[in-house]
User: Fold this.
Amino acid sequence: MINDNKKLKSLTTDELLSHRQILIASAPPLDLLRGSLITRNVKCGKPNCRCASGQGHPSLYFSSFHKSKNSIDYVPAKWEPWVKERLENYHRLQELIINLSEINLELLRRRIKD
Ligand SMILES: [Zn+2]
Assistant:
């Protein structure tokens, strides 16, 4: 992956344009989730459960931040792959935006519109 500015400068304009096309073609699906998965140890409350004297049962939660508000949502185990896939799409898209922007900045500096 060509993503630092020094490397971009050393590319020909044709290489930059073709790299931009490859990046655009590699875009993840716009099926996203922004936030993070966290594990919390939760005591179930049953007095005879082994967790009563220990750490609790590990449970999965989704933590997100939107409009200055933090949310924590329980994630059932079978939903973990669904959440992880969308988190990965989000991170891949974020990286793509940064890389495409760097290429377009270099094109702007060269005054290349297409
Ligand atoms: Zn328990």
In short: The first helix runs from residue 5 to 10. The chain has a mean pLDDT of 93.
